[in-house]
Amino acid sequence: MTYKAGIVGYRGYSGAELVRILEHHPAVQPVLLDHRTEDGGRPPIRHASHPVRLHCGPEAIKNEGLAVVFLATPPEVSMELAPVMLGAGALVVDLSGAFRLGTPENYMAWYKETHTQPALLAEAVYGLPEFRRDGIPGARLLSNPGCYPTAANLAIAPLIQAGVVDRAAGIVCDAKSGTSGAGRKPSLKTSFCEVTENFSAYSILRHRHVPEVLMVSGIEDREFSFTAQLLPVHRGILETIYCRTVGVESAEDLLAVYEKRYAGEPFIRLYEPGHVPDLRAVARTNFCDIGVTFDAASGRAVVVAAIDNLVKGAAGQAIQNMNLMLGFPETEGLL
Amino acid sequence: MTYKAGIVGYRGYSGAELVRILEHHPAVQPVLLDHRTEDGGRPPIRHASHPVRLHCGPEAIKNEGLAVVFLATPPEVSMELAPVMLGAGALVVDLSGAFRLGTPENYMAWYKETHTQPALLAEAVYGLPEFRRDGIPGARLLSNPGCYPTAANLAIAPLIQAGVVDRAAGIVCDAKSGTSGAGRKPSLKTSFCEVTENFSAYSILRHRHVPEVLMVSGIEDREFSFTAQLLPVHRGILETIYCRTVGVESAEDLLAVYEKRYAGEPFIRLYEPGHVPDLRAVARTNFCDIGVTFDAASGRAVVVAAIDNLVKGAAGQAIQNMNLMLGFPETEGLL
Amino acid sequence: MTYKAGIVGYRGYSGAELVRILEHHPAVQPVLLDHRTEDGGRPPIRHASHPVRLHCGPEAIKNEGLAVVFLATPPEVSMELAPVMLGAGALVVDLSGAFRLGTPENYMAWYKETHTQPALLAEAVYGLPEFRRDGIPGARLLSNPGCYPTAANLAIAPLIQAGVVDRAAGIVCDAKSGTSGAGRKPSLKTSFCEVTENFSAYSILRHRHVPEVLMVSGIEDREFSFTAQLLPVHRGILETIYCRTVGVESAEDLLAVYEKRYAGEPFIRLYEPGHVPDLRAVARTNFCDIGVTFDAASGRAVVVAAIDNLVKGAAGQAIQNMNLMLGFPETEGLL
Amino acid sequence: MTYKAGIVGYRGYSGAELVRILEHHPAVQPVLLDHRTEDGGRPPIRHASHPVRLHCGPEAIKNEGLAVVFLATPPEVSMELAPVMLGAGALVVDLSGAFRLGTPENYMAWYKETHTQPALLAEAVYGLPEFRRDGIPGARLLSNPGCYPTAANLAIAPLIQAGVVDRAAGIVCDAKSGTSGAGRKPSLKTSFCEVTENFSAYSILRHRHVPEVLMVSGIEDREFSFTAQLLPVHRGILETIYCRTVGVESAEDLLAVYEKRYAGEPFIRLYEPGHVPDLRAVARTNFCDIGVTFDAASGRAVVVAAIDNLVKGAAGQAIQNMNLMLGFPETEGLL
After folding, report:
1. Considering only CB atoms, which chain D residues are within 8 Å of B269?
2. Which of A118, B232, C321, D147 could form a disulfide with D309, with the two C-beta atoms 3.0–4.6 Å apart?
């Protein structure tokens, strides 16, 4: 059986990636939904076939029978569209930060805006399958995790849960992201001449993705130092994570924690001791790759986690979640 | 004696390069002129000294005693400001296309706008010193050449003037420019994610820089095929020029044409036969480097010319022109 | 039915691309063949499954029942291995220049080496399916085209064959390639610091890929000016081609020549008049994209053709050829 | 009075930068010294004047009257050449790691080689002027600091010396370097196709630059977690440093520590609270730029320090040291 999935924001980098992946999905067909005016997109190739394109509204959902709608839109647009799409009978997968933080207070604290849909916020399921798989199949509104927290939680949460981290000494997450993470809207900050041959840090200790890590990994703000940094690459996130361990004697011990936690997980790959992933290893895949380095004399661990910010950090994970919501194999269209 | 030079558009890439070069010029001091609101610029470094910054208007010229004003502005702003600056007693060096094409008709044909200052257009001196040096010292309004035509004319005009080109067979100029050539204003076309790992052609056969080549090199539009292309680099222009020759027997013959024409020129460098410049050779310099390859069997020549689009293609040449206008050595501040 | 395909040179960029594509091919399974020592390759990911890896020799062909062997090796290695692999019963697809030029004299003229397998050279089929499809299914030894000539011939040959080019005026092909075209062997020329923020021309008028264009497009050396240039990108070739036309009145006329010639071709895409492809459009695909610009007043045409040098310019086309040789649909594993 | 300075290893990136800077130094003239065969270097530009080039040996020192010799060579070559150059009467500035670590045992521990010049190792002065200025004027053998430790010590040592760091909680230094830091010798790791669109960590917790930080900043290995990472840029180092503070109430407090320590330092620039440098800010300069972010609730500080690895991290600092050794103003040729 084939389903149709609407995509709002299909011009953006995450939205375009959703279209690209769904065009190869065996059971779900993409439909482009225009919210307000959108500029031109694909090049004018003769005889090319493109996905159906409709005005974004309840009629499109009903007439086309869209099973699910992806919102690859800013938070304020997601808050506006989510109730409309749900009301028209579609499941919603939201890729913005609108429905990630659980409470209006938390949203206000980090996004500096009033949340206009508190009931939906309470209902939304945070879709990090490796940690919240059970709640996803029944979700009406799925909140897709942020790109930085996806890698951070996949690297940190197993260690916290296994009790091997000296939390009092703090956890440092030094994160680097490709420029597509800043979105497709033109800005000086993401202009070629400003980014090439450059590297810069931003939102140090105050990035709005921080609360997602606190929430999933179960740590306190004061224990978690996070820096976001802009790499002169198109796509990819690499996070270098530093902590002190308790009860760990070797890199192999640490890897055993991950191996146990992630047994059977299709999208987690672990590296042999002393080896760590680079961006290249995960480009255009839905994998999160994890490697560890350990100093036995001091108990210090350095964990390197890498994802493609547009795939496992956005569109790929959104489709992983959609697969779970619609009852498909979790990896469908993603390998 | 020290002069002061005003710079309008000092946030733009050419304008910032003017400031950078003038900060090291022994006899001219930069003054920033604000035309409308400009966003912040330099990083907030403690105790840093910055050039004086004033509102752009006749008072600034008079009160500060500005000898010259550089307009690193769009053509329509240059047309608005040039008469004001001249009226207040300053010399003007305009880096836009506003005063390059000689007649309002020519301007309309290529810029698709009415020229609002035809008298100044007629008066303006086209500042390619290697070909128009005599007219520059007495100029009130100096029109600084476009980046692409600077390299093209320096490579093509000597061969045309020496009569060694088979014009009927046509001259091809395949030009590649770094992204700073498109200016600092954010746009999707110059966004990092659109430019990196990409390469694209634009304005094929119709670029508005073409008439400057026809004018200086003395050839017809139908004889000159020009393509502009966007390189994923910050700065630099490389042009690969193809023609058929008459009366040339070797690469050495071709180089002899250039050597004769450019004897004593401080900013032209020629390469040994078979060697050609790359972008790196001219980065951050005011040089135009030229190399030739020749096929004796067929008389075909390929000339490669390289400049830094922000230096010899913009700010450096503007200061070279200013040096001539103010009576300084031509190379002052540029070596 | 499933076949096995051996790959020699699987560490190189073309070889690795062959492995990547074949891992997703529904009917052909890659087997890695080690010729001499090869360095380590994939990262040490736990529990990862890798293709079978064998010593490269006749036993591997026979014991494993390899139907075909890809030689992603330098010409001298291809000349050494091709007879061995053929003798052991495998079909051979050679990605080097060893078997492209038809005669030992031609090979000597451009590669400056004696050809050691003249009989195989005479037998080899040049595998540009869009122009030589009929000969491919029965070939034992398939010579895969060079990357530059693939784009050049696909853009030029239809126009020559339709008689719309003024050959006397010459055809210029200004070609730009990503750095992977220079291979994976470390060299100063392809070091990051030498390539980034740079652009350079090489082998002007003398590139060893030229004779493939003369051969397929049916033109003379003196009519064809070719420059190869190194782009600071990983992959992709864009060629800007200039010619004067006869009997052409519009861009649409030119496109009609291509449309007629390429009707039904699965890997050729044409652009609407005035639009041309960029590198991005073809990255990681087996497409050759073609767009034209035309000046009616002078009859000048500029054709832009783009391919991914590692796919349509190497591994993708090699698998397209393999599909034809083994009787699979031509697009199998390539869309 | 003018001095002559010899440069061994002038083809390498640091060596070429030494030549470039000295060509503009008002009082010191570069002389190229060939140690073994060196490949060609500068492009074949006609009529270009190049520095004198001599065989590297005691005769060159004596005959040319070289006051100082820069060794931009690997450690083993520096150990071989330093005694020869000193013996011939030149001062020596060594840019390798050969003479940085004080004792043969320390050298063996981090470089895994026997030190062949223990007496010179004991005599060498570690040339970080901001911390060791007094010893530099009288030095015969100056050991120029590593690139990573230069930025790390300039950022960390003032805080340690002021007693504001909670050393028990550890200090994390997450360092990112441009690819020129790996040298000019071709290798797969620094090939364009491996570096572009990639980012990778190496020598985690075990980099041989670590002991220089321990030595200057006065901390223990177990307190200092250092990761080196390769950026897809040509030049520049940015280090993100995390620590917990004691007795600090604001970013301004932290900046006051730096302001006091660095009063009058010509090459240190501090940023306003909440602002941090990027790579661009220091490119092609001898500055070390420092900015801080502070979280008052938890006492956590994040310090960002940036330098150009080839200037303040190598050639610029070497010339700063030479200026002190020869009695010139410290900034001569460097602003």
Report:
1. 45-46, 48
2. D147
Cβ atoms within 10 Å of C256's Cβ, excluding its own: 14
- Does C40 contact chain A (CB < 8 Å)? no
Q: What distance, in Å, lies between the first and last C-alpha atoms of chain C? A: 20
Q: Where are the alpha helices (DSSP H) in B247-293?
A: 251-261, 279-282
pLDDT for the residue B270: 98
Q: Does A13 touch chain B (CB under 8 A)?
A: yes
Query: Across residues C76-94, what is the average pLDDT?
Result: 98
Name the residue with tokens 């062949």. Answer: D116
- The pLDDT score that the predictor gives to residue D41 is 65
Nearest CB neighbour to C280, from listed B198, B233, B280: B198
- Check the CA dihedral C104-C106-C107-C112 and report its sign: positive
Helix (H, G, I), strand (E, B) or coil at B151: helix
Measured between beta carbons, the chain B residues lying within 8 angstroms of A187 are 186
Tens digits of residue pLDDT in D232-259: 999 999 999 999 999 999 999 999 999 9
Mean pLDDT (chain B, rounded): 96
Measured distance CA(D306)–CA(D201) in Å, rounded = 18
Residues C43-51, mean pLDDT to the nearest whole number:
89
Beta bridge partners of D202: D228
D193 assigned to active site: no
Indicate yes or no: CB of B227 within 8 angstroms of CB of C240. Answer: yes
Q: Does A187 lie at the interface with B, CB-CB under 8 angstroms? A: yes
ipTM of predicted assembly, 2 dp: 0.96
Separation in Å, CA of A87 to nearest CA in chain D = 42
CB under 8 Å to A20, separation ≥6 — which residues? A315
CA distance C333 to A22: 18
Contacts of B195 in chain A (CB under 8 A): 192
Q: Does D203 touch chain A (CB under 8 A)?
A: no
| Contact between residue B85 and residue B69 where contact means Cβ atoms under 8 Å apart | yes
Judged by a CB distance cut-off of 8 A, whether residue B269 touches chain D is yes
Residues contacting A158, CB < 8 A, separation 6+: A257, A258, A261, A262
Domains with residue ranges and CATH for chain C: 3-145+313-326 (3.40.50.720), 148-309 (3.30.360.10)
pLDDT in tens, C7-20: 999 999 999 999 99
Q: Name the C residues in 237-256 with CB < 8 Å from any A CB.
A: 255
pLDDT value for D50: 87
* DSSP states along A98-167: TTSSSSHHHHHHHH-S--S-HHHHHH-EE--HHHHGGGSTT-SEEEPPPHHHHHHHHHHHHHHHTT-B-G
- Rg (alpha carbons) of chain C, rounded to whole number: 20
| Chain pair B-D, CB pairs under 8 angstroms | 50
pTM: 0.97
Q: Which residues of B are catalytic?
A: 147
Give residue C38's pLDDT: 58
Residue A183: closest CA among chain B residues belongs to which residue? B193
Out of D147, D173, D243, D288, pick the active-site residue. Answer: D147
